[in-house]
Write the structure tokens for this entry.
Amino acid sequence: MRKSVLLALALIARSMALAAAATPPDQTTSKFGFLFAVVRPDCASENSCRSQFQTRLVVIEGSKMSVAVNSPHLYFPRKSGFWEIGITLPRMASSAQPQANEQANDEEAQQVEPSKEPALQLWAAPAGVKPTFSEPSAKPEATPQEDDDELRSLSLSWVGTDYLSVTEQIGEYTSSPLILPIDAVARNDAENPWRPKAPDAVLRKDLENCVDEKSDFNNREFLEDADQAWSIARGRMAWEFEWTFSHSGRALRGYQAACATSLRPPRALVGSDALEVGWNQVLARVPDARTAFASPDQSLVLVFTNGQILALKREGTTLGAPFARVFVTNSEIISGQWAVGKDADAWAEQLAHSKSWTDKTESTDKR
């Protein structure tokens, strides 16, 4: 009898040990960092600010969330470390303008040679490293036709780890969206823009769904003869393609149409970007939500409103009530990357000591 009891106890202990071995330890991550960049609302329409962007790192640990980094530069992580992206000021805005009552020698000192004026340009470089700029050339006074072809503004709508989405404003009306390799931007290489690889049948079906013969610009004739362009911007639940159609000819120059597309940016381009809860679930918890991002393990969702960031836990196919929030003004979000565990602290430490090359330039100018 005693042997039977001992044998039964041994079998129970063995089965419990096997069950414990089969069940992995709790892998729940207790710390996340979310690094994101926004366009400053006061700088979005024109390239008139020295710093047009703002990068923040929010850290969520346990039931608390805080802003660990708040920088007036556009920083983003790559395999080689943190990089920075920016846009130079227009020539007139960056040139020193002498006052009428100043001495002639002061005027000469303040005048900037036209050939050395910084042209409007998108740049990218490792954080703290001065980027490579194209050599601006002195041009005679532009004719009305040439002035109509001048690059007037650049606007970013998305920045990933290897690509970015930028729109060039040419002249008064014409805009040109482009998806470009960041390395090509850093080298000042004029590479062909990235375009999605999709079967012609898919694009044709999307185009057919976009045709509206009652519209001035979404009619078949306008769309089929137009130049097509692709860009990426943040939607409510994910990064989304924007598919635009425009004409470069004089009669229709400046006119543009947009079409919905069934294509979604590939993971190789935008990374893991699945919310995996319905937008109605987000609105049920945060009625004024603008967009939301899910953590890599899907356990946490950050919801952005105009004035807050709220952290919510995933509960199956639904969301729990917000358990933490920070009050920050949010405008157009153009990048977002997650750090998990110790990486969140490492990012905060690295960015706290990062110095933009523009900071060095600004301090030199003040001397």
Observations:
- Residues 1-27, 91-117, 363-367 have pLDDT under 50 and may be disordered.
